Amino acid sequence: MDQSSTRLLPPETPRDFGFFLDGAYVPAGDREVFLRNSPGHGTPVTRIPKCTTEDLDATVAAARAAFEDRRWSGLSGADRAAVLLKTADILEARTDEIAYWETLENGKPISQSRGEVGGCVSIFRYAAGVARTLHGDSFNNLGDKMFGLVTREPIGVVGLITPWNFPFLILCERVPFILASGCTMVTKPSEVTSATTLILGEILKEAGLPDGCYNVVTGSGSTIGQALTEHMDVDMLSFTGSTAVGRSCLQAAGSNFKKLGLELGGKNPQIVFADSDLEDAADGVAFGIGFNTGQCCVSGARLIVEASIADTFSEMVAAKLKNARVGDPLDEATQIGAITTDAQNDTILGYIAKGREEGAKVVTGGAALDIGQGQYIAPTVFSNVTPDMAIARDEIFGPVLTVMPFETLDEAITIANDTIYGLAASVWTKNIDKALTVTRRVRAGRFWVNTTLSGGPELPIGGFKQSGWGREAGVYGVEEYTQIKSVHIELGKRDPWVE
């Protein structure tokens, strides 16, 4: 990267990566490689091996060996915490480097990438604390001759499949909790955003994680991802991605009845009442759809606004989005970056066209932006939207906001719940009764009141309905990767069955 100016530049030649097996990089060798072009610049930035199923078997075998000989699970919580804390320190020191490669492959603004890496540092430090406090239970109420224990044990080898929209953040919302529980793992990142997942391998090794506990296999979801999901020697799979692929994970996991953790799609409501701070709400709604270019499973894609302010508020949000700086993701001033993949770019533009065809009105945006390089779409707001329209029901996964008015609180809740998803929701009001009523009755796993897309590792992540099951982060995020064992201890001499 160019260190001579404040404006970073793409590399002159793409960086070669191997996959990560048993504590070391394995070069691509004679394997096919995936050449990744930066979506913000159109130039090649990384070359990643296309692993074979034999490579996958090797990574699972390494994780299995590391788990069975207890090189990690046999350590104390304090010793595991020390590795996680050291990892956090190294991440902090390498923030700029990790953010650079994250932005190059994903297209998100460099300032956002840097902030996300900072968040990952915090997650590792939090998980270190949970590693030391993880515990079971005891039962001293079974009479004088029996004592009971409930222990939590690591589930074993975990397969982790992560998406391209938050390659490093979602990785770090899982990895430290998986490791805190004592599990070992095989990670399969998206083939278009593998660099930072591989870099984490060398960081964990430097921090003292034993070889074989963190392995990375690279390649496509349809081959390597599917094979990891079906693998007979993987005890649990954590998948983040679309609901459609999550459904296929359900079927594939039946191979050995492995446990599943699924964070899937969302079509998340932002409910705005007339008594809210409208300036704050407009800024929050704009942020909720513009952050990460709308390529965010918890983005607030449905604006459900009180009818008396609907037109005025829609214009306020549109004005905010018009002023948002869209451009080169390596520019520190950029707020909205590039669309990550060609396929997603086509999908978003297709939904915008369909919205027009269905009779919705474009308040702002509605087109691709030509800034001379890369692929960009103007943040788009649709009014005159009805609940039956595709843009109101489908997860677009882009900077497209639909506006639907409501008259009563009950109507707002009905519209919000009129979806197959239940991942996240926001409500904007200064009335505590309204806020709590909406929070209780809207079915979503994450909720924000007078804010959106905020929080830290203390609170769990996960969805209702077809947005998945299981929870990541928080104490729940470590418990997710454990099994519960009941232990009965008889005291004194046994009462004979046979005299």
Question: Tally of extended strands?
Answer: 25
Question: Could you list the spans in which at least 5 consecutive residues all have pLDDT below 50?
Answer: 1-5
The order of strands across the largest sheet is 15-18-19-14-13-21-22
Structural class comes to: alpha/beta
Would you mind describing this structure in some detail?
This protein has 16 helices and 25 strands. The chain has a seven-stranded mixed β-sheet, with helices on both faces. Strands 10-9-8-11-12-24 form a six-stranded mixed β-sheet, with helices on both faces. The chain is globular and about 85 Å long. α2 crosses α7 and α10 crosses α11. β16 and β17 form a beta hairpin. The chain is an alpha/beta fold and 499 residues long.
Short structural description:
The protein is α/β, with parallel strands linked by helices. The protein is built from 16 helices and 25 strands. Helix 2 (77-93) packs antiparallel against helix 4 and helix 3 (95-106) packs across helix 4.
